[in-house]
Design brief:
By secondary structure, this protein is α+β, with helices and mostly antiparallel strands. The protein is 19% helix and 25% strand. An eight-stranded mixed sheet has the order 1-23-19-22-18-17-16-15, with no helix packed on it. It has a six-stranded mixed sheet with strand order 14-13-12-24-25-26, covered by helices on one side. It binds fe (ii) ion (FE2). Residues 168-364 form the Calcineurin-like phosphoesterase domain.
């Protein structure tokens, strides 16, 4: 009997070990980071030539060009239309209404114009006009160029912010104006989002001799096919600085601020580089990696107050944009976001932010839910740890700009990194309701609809009770689901 008993126990022990190994493999497999083995074609990243069709100047004398829109207030009842006239001022009037014929558009708004010099370049006349008192979820047509060449476009205003309002964001960064950029934009067009969260680095004009600002114009014409029809929420990147004392250009962000307005005043900000908007069920906070963020600075002061203003009962999803990532395991721009992470990460963890989006690194990476907020200069606890209450960090600086793909990842892959791949692409974030959103990344070398990395995200605010008890433990409510 003793022998049989021992045998059974041994068999049980072996069975237990086998089962444990299977569980570890399954659990570990789902949890461990993935460095994608996908290898993109080895080819140069080439700027589209100046005579490319996507850069074509629209026909007609002084025709409005480089048309793009962004929210004109915090809640989506205003839209700011921007465009350029090249030959003469024309006017800054926009007619708009629910009928497509400009003659039948019942409302009109008067905008302003500006222009700037940059070394040997003088811009066209840059017009900005905010259309106010719009209804939510309504298709509006708008037209400008009266007196010369009239052009007509349309947009649909975002829905009234509320807890269960579906909305699809496009997530794009570091786009530039190469052939790859064109694929990225086309794929996003095909995937059909409602608004773009853009994480910085727009035209890459500064990569050209004398920061050739004509490349700001070509970029504006390239983007128009999407940006004239849905709002783009802008984040400032390092390529927006255009700081060139050797050219006598010492005003940071000069071309960017003249061309791309943001609705910063409506969220109590004092600068266009940090602000917030509410879109459907999301409260979107935009931060500036290239403005001061130390204690007592304007951005620090604003963010501290802003996080108190976020109302998760109305906008359950808290999404944060910045240019330089806090969690980046690529050697390219490694740890550049570290000082801002040290300054602000605890605030975002305490605020239970859902997703933090960044660009800057020209590849793709998604983190697990992690935080690194325990360090106090003497305790040595300076390592990212799994934290079910913390945001997911996504680096989406893979739009396809002239600088090429960043294919030099640190090894081994750090434990906080869930998926990374050195390819160009874009992502979408589809908010379904107050609890669930589907996030997916689409590499350019596949069709637009192919999901190369996807995850269901569950809302952090809705899971508050779970995390309040123990932030380090997951529960069925807290786990994000890989499809
Ligand atoms: Fe950058």
């Amino acid at each position: 009997m003793m022998g049989d008993d021992l045998l059974l126990r041994r068999r049980g022990g072996v069975l237990f070990l086998v089962l444990s190994a299977v569980l570890v493999l399954l659990g570990g497999g789902a949890d461990a980071g993935v460095t994608s083995s996908y290898r993109r074609k080895l080819e140069a990243t080439v700027e589209m030539p100046l005579d490319a069709d996507v850069f074509r100047v629209p026909p007609g004398y002084n025709a409005p060009q480089q048309v793009h829109i962004t929210l004109g207030d915090q809640e989506g009842t205003a839209m700011t239309v921007s465009w350029v006239t090249a030959s003469e001022l024309g006017n800054s009037t926009v007619k708009f209404g629910e009928k497509p014929d400009p003659e039948k558009m019942e409302r009109r708004a008067e905008g302003t114009h500006t222009r700037y010099d940059y070394f040997n370049y003088t811009s066209g006349f840059i017009h900005h006009c905010t259309l106010k008192h719009l209804k939510h979820s309504t298709k509006y047509y708008y037209a400008m160029g009266f007196g010369h060449t009239v052009r007509t476009f349309s947009f649909t205003t975002p829905p009234k912010p509320g807890p269960d309002v579906p909305f699809k964001f496009g997530l794009i960064g570091d786009l530039g104006q190469t052939f790859d950029s064109n694929i990225t934009l086309s794929h996003y067009d095909d995937n059909g989002g409602d608004a773009v969260l853009y994480v910085g680095d727009l035209s890459y004009a500064d990569n050209h001799p004398l920061h050739d600002n004509n490349r700001w114009d070509t970029w504006g014409r390239f983007m128009e096919r999407n940006a004239a029809y849905q709002p783009w929420i802008w984040t400032a990147g390092n390529h927006e600085l255009d700081f060139a004392p050797e050219l006598g250009e010492t005003t940071p962000f000069k071309p960017y601020t003249h061309r791309y307005p943001t609705p910063y005043l409506s969220s109590g900000s004092t600068e266009p580089f940090w602000y917030s908007v509410k879109l459907a069920s999301a409260h979107v906070v935009v931060l500036s990696s290239y403005s001061a963020y130390g204690k007592y600075t304007p951005q620090w002061t604003w963010l501290q107050a802003e996080l108190q203003r976020v109302d998760r009962t109305t906008t359950p999803w808290l999404v944060v944009l910045m240019h330089s990532p806090w969690y980046n395991s690529n050697n390219y721009h490694y740890m550049e976001g570290e000082t801002m992470r040290v300054q602000f990460e605890k605030w975002l963890v305490d605020a239970r932010a859902d997703v933090v989006l960044a660009g800057h690194v020209h590849s793709y990476e998604r983190s697990h839910r992690v935080s690194n907020v325990a360090y106090d200069i003497v305790n040595g606890e300076a390592t990212p740890v799994r934290d079910a209450g913390a945001p997911v960090y996504v680096t989406i600086g893979d739009g396809g700009n002239i600088e090429g793909v960043a294919d030099n990842f640190t090894r081994p892959q750090p434990s906080y990194s869930a998926f990374r791949e050195a390819s160009f692409g874009h992502a979408t974030l589809e908010i379904k309701n107050r609890t669930h959103a589907y996030y997916s990344w689409h590499r350019n070398h596949d069709g637009a609809k192919v999901v190369a990395d996807g995850v269901w995200l569950t809302n952090r605010a809705q899971s508050y009770a779970v995390f309040f008890l123990d932030r380090t433990k997951t529960s069925s409510m807290a786990i994000d689901h890989q499809p």
